Amino acid sequence: MTEQILFLAERQKVLRKISRTKRELETPDLPADQKKNMKSLLRSYRVQLNYILNYPKDQKYISLFPSKSSSSGEVVGTATEVRRAELLASIKKAMKGGEMDAEPETNYIVMEKERSDEEMPDADEGWSGSEPEQREQKLPNKVKNRPVEPRSPDQSSERLNDDFFEASSD
Predict the structure, then answer these.
(1) Which residues contact 6 (CB under 8 A, 6 or more apart)?
(2) What is the pTM (predicted TM-score) of this model?
(3) What is the pLDDT of residues 38-51, one digit of tens each?
(4) Which residues touch 3 (CB under 8 Å, ≥6 apart)?
């Protein structure tokens, strides 16, 4: 669970950096040397995004932005740093070779939109009464298994007769 939260936080951080860098590159009065630096920075952010999106699912996720200190005060594992550097280098090579997307943020946004469209039913489909098993599958567990208790006439009259909303005569 914590790996997934870390993954989501890092993905969001890198996506924000990419969009900020793109906006800054679009400014017309940007000097040539600064523009070159911004383009190289954008390339490194795209490599990081590909790292996050294409990280092997069967391996424990290695953070791109590790915490600076550990609880014992020792240097954080060099084997981890070496593994992260190897993965980043292989992703950079794959991007140059055309094996990986050079602009992963554009495809990622399109994929997210398509995924959210698939999860939502169309207006014509809706939740008609003819598909109760499909409706059951979409409901969260709390709603599915909650018992419904009918109210007796005594319970409703008790609620009406309580003095909670009575005006105080101060």
Answers:
(1) 61, 63
(2) 0.59
(3) 999 999 999 999 99
(4) 60, 61
